[in-house]
Amino acid sequence: MPHIELRDLAPDTTDAAFEAVRSSSSAWSRARFDDRAAFDAWLADDAVSAHAIVQDDGVVGVAAAMDVDGDREVLLAVSPDADPEAPTEALRMITVHEAERPLYACVASDDEPSHDVLARLGFVEHGRDGADVVYVLPPTLE
C-alpha cells in the first residue's frame, strides 16, 4: 500500500483537493459541491475541519469533520484513482484526530464501498435519513 497521510489544506493543495472531490463518486451527502465557490465556502466554515488526503505526494481526496445539528460528523471524498485502501486509512486517521465520541457519518444507502469502510472501523448503523444511512462510532468502554 502506498503511504497515506492527512495534511492541513493549504492554498497549494486546495485546487487538487477540489478536483479530487469532483472526481470522487462519493455518496457522502455532505461531500458533494456544485462548484468551487460552494467548496471554498464550506472550507471557510468554522464548524468544518478539513484535511487533504495525500497518497505518496499527490492529493487524492478530502477527509473532514464538522458540526451537524450539535453532533460531530466525518466525511470522505476520495478520487477513484486512489489506492483502494486509501479511504479506510484516511477514515481511520480522521477518527483518531476527532477523538470525541460519538462520531457520526452519513452515506447514501446504495454506496456499498462506503458502508464497508465504515464497518471496518467500527461504525454501526444508527438510523436512516431519507435515502441516506446514518452511522455512529459509539464511545468505547475504558
Which helices and strands occur, and which strands form pairs?
Elements: E1 4-8, H1 11-23, H2 36-44, E2 48-55, E3 58-68, E4 71-78, H3 86-97, E5 103-108, H4 112-120, E6 124-129, E7 132-137
Antiparallel strand pairs: 1-2, 2-3, 3-4, 5-7, 6-7
Major sheet size, sense and barrel closure: 4 strands, antiparallel
Strands, total number: 7
How much beta, percentage-wise? 35-45%
Please state the CA-atom Rg, rounded to the nearest Å: 14 Å
Enumerate how many helices there are, as a single number.
4
Pairing-aware structural class of the strands and helices? alpha+beta
What is the N-to-C succession of helices and strands? EHHEEEHEHEE
Give the neighbour order of strands across the main sheet. Answer: 1-2-3-4
Shape: globular
Distance between the termini: 32 Å
Mean pLDDT: 90
Low-confidence stretches: none
Roughly how much helix do the residues carry, as a percent range? 25-40%
Tell me about this structure.
With 142 residues, the chain is α+β, with helices and mostly antiparallel strands. It is 30% helix and 35% strand. The protein contains 4 helices and 7 strands. The strands form 2 sheets. A 4-stranded antiparallel sheet has the order 1-2-3-4, sandwiched between helices. Strand 2 and strand 3 form a beta hairpin. The longest helix is centred in the N-terminal third of the chain and has 13 residues, at 11-23. The chain is globular, with a radius of gyration of 14 Å. The termini are far apart. The mean pLDDT is 90.
